[in-house]
Amino acid sequence: MTSTITSSTGTLLAGRLRETRARAFAGRSGELAVFRAALRGDPGSSPVLFVHGPGGIGKSTLLRRFADEAEAAGRTVTHICARSTPATPAAFEAAAAPVLADETPVLLIDAFERCRGLELWLRRRLLPRLPDRAVVVVADLEPPSLEWRTDPGWEDALGVIALRNLSPEEASALLTSRGVDPARHDELLRFAGGHPLALRLAAETTSDAGPGPAPARDVVTTLLERLVGDVPSQAHRRALEVCAHSLVTTELLLRAVLPDDDAAELFAWLRRLPFVESGARGVFPHDVVRDALEADLRWRDMASWEEVHRRIREHLIGRCLQAPEPEALALLSETTYLHRYGGVTHDYFSFREDGATFEDVLRPEDHGAVLRLAAGTCDLALVAHWLDRWPEAFRVHRSSGTGEPVAFMTWLLDEEPDAADLAADPVLAAAWAYARASTPPRPGERLGLMRFLVCPDGDVRPSPVLDRMLWRIAACWMRTDRLAWSVMATPHPRFWERLMIYLDHPPLPETAAAGEHAQTLYVHDWRTSPLRVWLTNAAVEEVYGPGARPPATPELAVLSRAEFDEAVRDALRCADDPVRLARNPLSRSNLVAAHDTTLRRVLVETVNALRVGRHHVAVSATYLGGPTTQEACAQRLRLPLGTYRRHLTRGVAALCDALWEREVLR
Fold first, then answer.
1. Other CB atoms within 10 A of residue 1 CB
2. Fewer CB within 10 Å, N side or C side of the chain?
3. Of 187-201, 367-381, 527-541, the least confident
């Protein structure tokens, strides 16, 4: 379709349309300034502007505004839409004929992605023939080709404009122009962000019946049709759904989630999509496309959505538990993002990185800055105590500009606390007193206390700094060997309560006094509810929210070493009696539960793995070969009874040691 508008043809209806469009237009002040400079021919302005951005971002709306601006300036405007103009040089030549016959024309070409094959012809044949005072605007999903941008002849003539989302203020102004009640703006902005098409569609479907948690079905359908369009195959559709669900997508992730598809080809395709951007850790879609794809798949096929979620989650957690620390923290950011449907984390995580700060170790020259940050929120004497006693327990967050600390946190991890530390810090003493009174840490097991968490300006709220602190906390919980208890102490229980309960860290009934700041302690026993169970519960909450937590899993038995050894001997004595074995406390231990197996299988596997002299043979023959007597076993093994009994005693002791090692190892 081609239309030519001149200033002399303005009718009452045309004027009314221009006024209506002007009232409904929001933002784009920078783009308008660039176009107006081109109309005036200002020094340094570009006569050819290439506007690009994802579908629905407002390219066509901007071109219509450009047309109104040009008409008001007395210029002749020719508008070519590639959606309805054949992609041939002859068709474009005919459509652009009015431009070639005018001294000061304005040529607007919309949807140029439909005829990208004409770019070379446009650049070399058509545009050089235009009058010197002509202004041309080309709108496309993608930026101009590299050849165009690097051609020295076009260096001063071509201006490239990447069209982005509207700012919150501009988006709110657009909603106001559409007659949306200001009370509804936040709700619609949460769905649409600053995406103009999403905002307009959401405004059209908004009713006075009250806010809804999800966009209307017709809004989602229209968005997908306009923004995504047709995809080449089902494999490409699945890759798009993975990209929408994960914080960032890599070829490695696609290979793990879609093992039967060509991950390299799918990743290359994702990178080329106009609504997909590339970052330091992978690619990610425009927020509106992400939300629309997610809403569509959940509505259309919830089982497939859950399967995508499960596979992404398993991949990320598996890598997180094995990766080096810096990589693990980044993976935890991606894992945390999967909790966005749980109804809790959005109040605690910003999921943005502004580059203003970074995490670092504490340095000796930081002590004064840490104490200044702690003033008013922590007991300074206790902060000073730990700075002196355990500086390596501190992590600081520095300003990228100055390097100065702007926030800090402290993770105290110990197997057996020093008496002087217990006397100095009542919070540490309270944590250890509770642990010892319930299920005390066994030799080699440790208690971790998140002691101080001080945000920039003392303001505890979602921010990039708090995001990193929470990922650090999760890493401490998930990656610390032989962690028996994790405790978080905070003077801000009203802020933290929902998140800590969601993370299965209920509060202790009594607070701990620390100077003027009473501390609430949130605790979790990783022996009675180990990491495997914790992650299983979280998997359900991620999808359905905290109200959908699965039925409580029976707490695991936590035995002292003496109790454990006695339970092993009892299990050996009844190894062929399933009823008695089921009553043995080892059946409820981490030894069995963590490996999703049976107690008898654990006994057999561990005995067979011992292979120490004849010890394992004596144990196996006595307890795992059917009913017998020691005398019969000694005779069958051709050993004197005393020698046989020494082998048996040593074998049982070695078995207890091996099983204990498996029990306490996370």
1. 11
2. N
3. 187-201
Rg of the chain over Cα atoms, rounded to whole angstroms, equals 34
Output phi, psi for 8, to 5 deg.
-85, -5
pLDDT score for 666 = 59
Instruction: Name the average pLDDT for the chain.
Output: 85
Enumerate residues 6+ apart whose C-beta is below 8 A from 481. Answer: 665, 666
pLDDT at 390: 95
Six-digit token string for 495: 């802020």
Fold annotation for 357-528+544-548: Aminopeptidase (3.40.630)
List residues bridging with 514 in a β-sheet. 517
Mean pLDDT of 603-629: 80
CA–CA separation, 219 and 236 (whole Å): 23
DSSP type of residue 249: B
Strands 512-514 and 105-110: unpaired
Residue 555 CA to residue 119 CA, distance in Å, equals 68
Terminal alpha carbon distance of the chain: 68
Q: Please state, in angstroms and rounded to a whole number, the distance separating the CA atoms of residues 11 and 5.
A: 11
253 within 8 A of 230, measured Cβ to Cβ: no
Q: Which CATH superfamily is domain 2-162 in?
A: P-loop containing nucleotide triphosphate hydrolases (3.40.50.300)
| Region for residue 613 given its phi and psi (left: phi exceeds 0; alpha: psi -120 to 50; beta: otherwise) | left
Structure tokens at 268: 């290359």
Structure tokens at 179: 């007659």
Query: Which pLDDT tens digit goes with each residue over 428-438?
Result: 999 999 999 88
Segment among 189-193, 436-440, 538-542 with least mean pLDDT: 189-193
Q: What is the DSSP letter of 39?
A: H
591 alpha carbon, distance to own chain's centre: 33
How do residues 369-395 score in pLDDT, each as one tens digit?
Answer: 999 999 988 999 999 999 999 999 999
CATH architecture of 226-341: Orthogonal Bundle (1.10)
DSSP readout, 376-395?
Answer: TTS-HHHHHHHHHH-GGGEE
Q: What is the pLDDT of residue 11?
A: 52
In the predicted structure, residue 263 carries a pLDDT above the cut 80:
yes
Q: How far apart are the C-alpha atoms of 579 and 419, rounded to whole Å?
A: 46
Which of 394-403, 416-425, 608-617 comes out lowest in average pLDDT?
A: 608-617
- At 361 the three-state DSSP class reads strand
CB-based contact 663:571 (threshold 8 Å)? no
Structural tokens at position 461: 């709220």
Q: Which of the four pLDDT bands, split at 50, 70 and 90, describes residue 7?
A: very low
